[in-house]
Amino acid sequence: MAGKPLSPEFRCGYIALVGRPNVGKSTLLNRLLGQKISITSKRPQTTRHRILGIKTGSRSQQIYVDTPGLHHYNGRAMNRHMNRAATLALADVDVVVFVVEGLRWTADDDLVLKKLEQVDCPVVLVVNKVDLVADKQSLLPGLKEMSGRGEFEQIIPLSASKGDNVDALEACVEALLPESPPFFPEEQVTDRSERFLVAERIREKLFRSLGRELPYGLTVEVESFRREERIIHIHALIWVERQSQKSIVVGKQGRVLKQVGRQARLEIESLLDSKVNLKLWVKVKEGWADDERALQSLGYTNDD
Ligand SMILES: Nc1nc2c(ncn2[C@@H]2O[C@H](COP(=O)(O)OP(=O)(O)OP(=O)(O)O)[C@@H](O)[C@H]2O)c(=O)[nH]1
Ligand SMILES: [Mg+2]
After folding, report:
1. Which CATH number fits domain 194-297: 3.30.300.20, 3.40.640.10, 3.40.50.850, 3.30.70.1400?
2. Rg (Cα) of the chain, in Å, rounded?
3. Which of 196, 233, 238, 252 is most buried, with most CB under 10 Å away?
4. Exposure of 269 in the CB half-sphere (CA atoms within 13 A)
5. Residue whose CA lies nearest to ligand 1 atom number 32
6. Residues 198, 229: Cα–Cα separation, whole Å
7. What pTM was estimated for this model as a whole?
8. Per-chain mean pLDDT for the chain
9. Residue 3: its pLDDT value, please?
10. How far from the centroid of its chain's Cα atoms is residue 197's Cα?
């Protein structure tokens, strides 16, 4: 694109990826972009913010918005923040991609469908994880049944983790974008800072290493980020809600924290293309995840 005149038919616009937790929205974003922008895990409620993934080609600039999973929640401030962030992402987009998991339909999918009644842009239904549908015979009637649940521009079965049929989604989305010059420079792939991406990689390793309950009570904050000629020094704080959680995150003789730190450092080195010295501390902030002010100070802001 650089230097070349833009074709008058160039398209550009925003595409929100929405759905209940754990259906594969972030995996799909990374697959569409061909690189890791959003963190993923087998635990629901991994994504906590809106995150842009920008893909610029010769015909279009597709600006995908990854979102937290919409869900019925128990009133905790963090869950409220996540649902609000996902809902806000529906405003002012050109296309909505509603992601569901195989042929399973749950109460949270209904919640998403209800939200979508308020949008007036086209909605594409993505049936993800088709690689897990054992009975392939059930796929066609299953898709037909799905089509009766709402007004969808198209229904696209795919596998985000294997990459099957993702190009069909991209072609569909591209055709639905308005003609417009690009909004972002062609080399920009996200709106998020290096600090944010680093904190997220650390959180991913924690989510993947820790047991079932713990991940929801922790968050990561990059306290300092200092670039030297050949190395970047990063200090990060892992905030937990209770003292007992701190010992779990640290592990026996510091083993868990050490392993998380090593895994995160390797990924961050490749992300930043530099040697990294990563130092992690675990700190307790009582009940931070249900405290609006604590949330704000830890980066969970209203417009985010
Ligand atoms: N088998 C299979 N697994 C998938 C596929 N797509 C995603 N997954 C897995 O599903 C889990 C959830 O994926 P995520 O991308 O984190 O899901 P999400 O919708 O972003 O989840 P939240 O951020 O919690 O809302 C991970 O373990 C993924 O590896 C797929 O196409 N096939
Ligand atoms: Mg996600």
Report:
1. 3.30.300.20
2. 20
3. 238
4. 12
5. 129
6. 19
7. 0.96
8. 94
9. 56
10. 11
Helix, strand, or coil (residue 237): strand
Measured distance CA(94)–CA(177) in Å, rounded: 6
Question: Topology of domain 11-176, per CATH?
Answer: Rossmann fold (3.40.50)
Choose between 73 and 14: higher pLDDT: 14
pLDDT at site 136: 87
Q: Check pocket membership of 67 for ligand 1, CB cut-off 6 A.
A: no
Report how far apart, in Å, the C-alpha atoms of 201 and of each of 94, 124, 144 are: 29, 29, 39
- 4 CB near ligand 1 (under 6 Å): no
Which residues keep their CB under 5 angstroms from ion ligand 2? 25-26, 46-47
Count other C-beta atoms under 10 Å from residue 125's C-beta.
24
The phi, psi pair for 240, rounded to 5°, reads: -120, 170
Quick one: pLDDT at residue 72? 94
Tens of pLDDT, residues 92-146 = 899 999 999 999 999 999 999 999 998 999 999 999 999 999 888 999 999 999 9
Neighbours of 88 (CB within 10 A): 16
- The alpha carbon of 15 and the centre of ligand 2 are apart by a number of angstroms equal to 15
- Residues found in the chain: 304
Could you tell me if the CB of 215 is within 6 A of ligand 1? Answer: no
- Burial of 200 per CB tally in 10 Å (0-12, 13-18, 19+): buried
Q: What stretch(es) of the chain map to CATH 3.30.300.20?
A: 194-297
- Is residue 201 within 8 A of residue 264, CB to CB? The reply is yes
Burial string for 154-172 (b: 16+ CB within 10 Å, else e) reads: bbbbbbbbeeebbeebbeb
Quick one: pLDDT at residue 6? 74
Residues of the chain with CATH 3.40.50.300: 11-176
Among 133-137, 168-172, 257-261, the minimum mean pLDDT is found in 133-137
SS3 assignment, position 278: strand
